[in-house]
Amino acid sequence: MTVRDADADRRAFRAELRAIEKETQVAELQTRLDDTRDEVVKTMSKVTSAASRAEAASGIAEAEVALQTLRGRAGAQHPDVIEVGKLVQRASAEFSKNNFGGAFYLATEAKSEAATARTRLGDARATARNGETALAVPVRLKVLSRGNVREGPGTSFGVAFSVESGGMLTAYAHTDDWVRVTDDGGRAGWIFRTLVGRP
What we know:
The chain is an alpha+beta fold. The protein has two domains: 2-126, no CATH class; 133-197, SH3 Domains (SH3 type barrels, Roll). 57% of the residues lie in helices and 20% in strands. The protein is elongated, with a radius of gyration of 21 Å. The two termini are 31 Å apart.
């Protein structure tokens, strides 16, 4: 019966971590959307020229290449691929309306988002272990009680650093019982799932 309780605890922890991950994604996407709308409104009021048309066309082409590269690395259904795809589509739509400034801005945003996502994917792959599940976006977690962050996912690994209750960590991936994290100083390691929770 103890094994079943431990499995239930693991499932509950993974569900909670996924919920925090989704909330973080929604907050990031909403912020991006709000910022983009504000910038597009500002940009739309600017006078367009032949030069801005060429810049917009070039920017859209570069954003499409960045999107294809990201799609090849992360897959078509990855949230970052979907978001970059939407920005590229919006850039093309604005270009069709002769809003070259707005199209250029959206294309630049798409390239920036693609670069950030590629960096995040590269970081996750560089440190991935067998059985590790990467989070779609980094997630902030609060340290619930004093403990150790280890060099790997288990007590057989050395202690990388210690954390105090109330501290904050950023999570990137998890295994059954361990979460791969960094602190605000950039130190990295693994912490046992019961030591962290929702901020």
